[in-house]
Design a protein that fits this description.
By secondary structure, this protein is mainly α. The protein contains ten helices and two strands.
């Protein structure tokens, strides 16, 4: 009931996503995500096969790292001189490892397609520290088009990075927002973690927030809000430039 009242009193409702380029990104993201999940499941299956394999076969793989194990198992040949358990385990490992390789190649190919589309639509996003093709694509899918969000604050609320008051008595604090587009929130979280690990200025920012009395999670929440503001400005500018290019081409025609 409260959400209905809020929708009726809102002056600017969030518009539906556009199709076309954004929908192309969405279907590529969804397909890649499925390939990654299937690849993870196949890797776990291969790990289980290695753990339960006969001693001689397991010793061949024990000292290899995971990528090397996958490549090694994918090249297994039949071993007719071995007993039935050994031969069938080799066959199962080879089949599973080849499935992993095929799924990883599929995911990589889809990621390259996504990167091409992102470069065409908003190349400035990729210049931001911590933003890769997958996070940039998710941001573009959730953003959709200029004018969908009435303000940067509305975009932050949709991304689930706007502060929620959680004061009690003499305590004045805010908590993380658990609502909004969770895929977009996950993209913002990924960017935040990368910056906290690699960017000296981000480390300084977080340290300053903690010195001011904020918890580590509160400092992270503040950082997400800063990143969301940067992303919003880039998206607004990118869409405005694209619109200007379209108008110029129309006038020239």
């Amino acid at each position: 009931m409260s959400s209905t009242k809020e929708a009726l009193t809102t002056e600017h409702l969030i518009q539906p996503r556009l199709r076309g380029e954004r929908e192309a990104l969405r279907v590529l993201l969804a397909t890649r995500h499925g390939a990654v999940l299937a690849s993870t499941a196949a890797i776990n299956q291969l790990k289980a096969l290695i753990v339960s394999a006969p001693d001689g076969l397991r010793s061949e793989l024990r000292k290899l790292k995971r990528p090397e194990q996958i490549a090694y198992c994918a090249q297994f040949r039949d071993r007719p001189a071995q007993d039935l358990e050994h031969r069938m385990t080799v066959r199962a490992m080879r089949s599973t490892a080849q499935r992993v390789q095929a799924l990883q190649a599929e995911a990589k190919g889809l990621e390259n397609e996504i990167l091409t589309l992102v470069r065409q639509q908003a190349p400035a996003l990729l210049d931001l520290l911590g933003v890769g093709p997958i996070t940039a694509a998710q941001i573009l899918v959730s953003w959709s088009h200029q004018g969908r969000f009435r303000s940067e604050a509305a975009f932050a609320s949709f991304a689930g990075v706007s502060p929620i008051p959680a004061s009690s008595g003499l305590t004045n604090r805010h908590r993380l927002n658990r609502s909004g587009d969770r895929q977009l929130n996950r993209a913002m979280h990924t960017i935040t973690l990368i910056r906290m690990r690699l960017d000296p200025s981000t480390k300084t920012y977080v340290a300053r927030k903690i010195a001011e009395g904020k918890t580590s999670r509160d400092a992270q929440r503040c950082l997400k809000r800063v990143i969301c503001r940067q992303v919003f400005k880039i998206l607004e500018r990118s869409d405005r430039n694209q619109l200007g290019n379209v108008e110029a081409l129309t006038q020239a025609a």
